[in-house]
Amino acid sequence: MTTSPIALTSALARFDAIWSPRIVAQVNDYDVRIAKVAGEHVWHSHDNTDEFFLVLEGELTIALRDGDAERTVVLAQGSVFVVPRGVEHKPSSADGASILMFEPSGTLSVGDRRDSVPDHVDVTTGHRLD
Amino acid sequence: MTTSPIALTSALARFDAIWSPRIVAQVNDYDVRIAKVAGEHVWHSHDNTDEFFLVLEGELTIALRDGDAERTVVLAQGSVFVVPRGVEHKPSSADGASILMFEPSGTLSVGDRRDSVPDHVDVTTGHRLD
To answer: What is one Pfam family matched by this protein (chains A, B) (predicted)?
Structure first.
């Protein structure tokens, strides 16, 4: 449990890995995670949970599939978006970004159904912020 | 459900009321709420849920009671903090702030146990962002 405030910029300065979320807070059985991102994540979906994104720095693109249709949303710094459960999505950031996510503890970073995971994407339920 | 990104600065520009949270996103059965705050809220506690705070602008102070002991945490812009369930707390901001909160949908802004609520504090489970 958080007992003193955490400055997100300081927390982000404590790691370099991309697509490798750190848990900065827990709210009931949910995690607040932060991640540095750059390039492409992987197409995946979460069967049982929505996923919340807030862009702290930079710009995040999220490609979304609905059947055969595909669309893209672009989140500028300070923007929020929720990917509904079951929706295939692929986050990416051409120039790099820092993001905050809110999702149930135990949610896997690459979802329940996914394309093969490239080496630069960490398969994790979130790491402790050391 | 959010279908396009929401810029938090634009969302904040759409209302003036203080201590009157707006729901900007839903994540499963949780709300993401934003609020403008200034002056003092009210001592209260949530029996059944933790409460997450992120300061978007300005500085937020949260007074916390643990039995007879009282302490205060100060959240600068970009800082996060979780008030554990059951802990009496009173947010305040001498110079005003904008904050983001995560909590279960239906969570009352003034908790389950509280001091008498002053007129400038809205008793709400969160308003729609119009």
So the answer is: Cupin_2
CB contacts, 8 Å: B78 with chain A: 7-9, 56
Going from N- to C-terminal start, the domains of chain B cover 8-128
State the ipTM, two decimals: 0.93
Give A22's strand partners.
Answer: A34, A127
Read off the pLDDT of residues A76-117 as tens digits, 9 standing for 90 and up: 999 999 999 999 999 999 999 999 999 999 998 988 888 888
CATH architecture of B8-128: Sandwich (2.60)
Distances (CA, A) of B64 to A21, A111, B58, B129: 29, 37, 20, 29
**B98, two tokens:** 């904008």
The CA distance from A103 to the nearest CA of chain B, in Å, is 8
In this prediction the pTM is 0.94
User: Is B84 in Cβ contact with A51 (below 8 Å)?
Assistant: no
